[in-house]
Amino acid sequence: MFQSKPHTAPKLIAVRKGFFLAVPAVLMPVFAFLLVELCLNVFGYGYATDFFIARQVAGRKISFDNARFSQRFFPPQLARPSCRMAIPAEKPSATYRIFVLGGSAAMGDPDFSFGFSRMLEAMLQHEHPEIQFEVFNVAVTAINSNVVLPIARDCAGLQPDLFVVYLGNNEVIGPYGPGTVFAPFQSSLGFIRTSVFLNSTKTVQLLKSLRQEWDSNADEIQAWGGVEMFTENRLRFDDPRMAAVYDHFRENLLDICQVGERAGAKVILSSVATNLQNCAPFGSLHRPDLTDPSLNEWEKHYRLGMDFEAAGRFDAALAPYSQAAAIDDEFADLHYRLARCYRSLGKFDAAQQHYIRARDLDA
Prior knowledge:
alpha/beta; 3-stranded antiparallel beta sheet; 7 strands
């Protein structure tokens, strides 16, 4: 007859004891969190964190933009506003409702009255006057796919016919990206989404408020500074963290598409157009293994090329620029200057290759 080993029972007892000790240790903080959250909601503390706030106006349910939505992801002094809008819960008949999602490029920053959404609405109305088009600009400056996903979920309840997702330019510098000055970078998408959820709670709002009061460095960034805010957070094109950025972007896009399809909407995805010719790299970095003697040699060729280029001698500038590239071809501005020289000489294919390289190396 089979008999259990003498040490099996004590081990089983120890495991069970550990389990019964662990359960309260996990459940008590959760219970405390839920209790605080309930109390804060009962007493009306905090603000709504959804993208839309629904109100009754003349007997109709209308969804308005939430001016404080961005505070869920940004410090109060850096929170970016959305466009003003009022959306009836019931969509009128013969109406095609479109939501444009994305960051500043989709919004039309700095003047969204001339942005993509307005152009799209005018073009569609001109081509199809028999249809009433509603194009709502739900994009916000400085956000990325981590923020667009909850916005898409809020839009899904408003009878959308089409999502236009114009996105990708803020995945590195937007919230939770490796080059951000906002919510710190996270390599785990699950952790990011948990953080996004927790930031919607009144308890976390209270904790943030207390931190603002107690932490003398909490208000270090006092105002929105545009691209200048990211100059100290330069990132190499081959930074190991970029793999997580691409993974997060792909997963968020898939989920945005799924949200739209479940709501009965079509979804159009578009990467952001770039002005290769007129937008120089914002930051350039040398390759990390460049030695001081090699850097000095690189600088000598680079400066000589700049002198020739400034004098309009574009053909002559190509030689020292190319010599610099032979030493280090990872400096974005060098490729931008090569592109300008090739373009000035009418060599447009070569110019385009270097313009693209300059964009991709931009730190």
